[in-house]
Amino acid sequence: MTTRTRFVPPAGATAILLMLTIVSGCIHSKPVNNQQADQYWQLQPDIWPQAEPTMISLGGRKLPGRWVFHQEPDAIAAAGSIAEAVQKLREGQAQPSIDISVSPAHSEMIADSLADARRVILRLRKIAETGRSDRPDQWAEALADALMAVERFTRLEGRSDPGGKPADVAAGPAITMLTGLLHEWSDSELLAGMSPAEQQNLRLVATQAILRVGFSAANKAVPTGLAQQVVTVMQQAGNPMDLHKSLQKMLAGALLQTPQTPGDDPVEKIVQGSLKGLPVALRVFEVLLRQWGRMDYAEIEYRRFDGHAVVSMTFKTRPGKKLELKDLYFMQPDMSLRGTVRMTVMPYCPPAQSVSILFEPLEKGSAAHMELPGLGWRLVRLLVMPIASGDLRQISVWSGGNPTYNGINVALLMTVPDSKDPRRLLAFNNLKQQELSRTIAEAGYKVLRREIDVTYMTPERIYVYRNVKYQP
Question: Which of 7, 9, 14, 46 has its CB 3.0 to 4.6 Å from that of 330, i.e. a possible disulfide?
Answer without folding.
Answer: 7
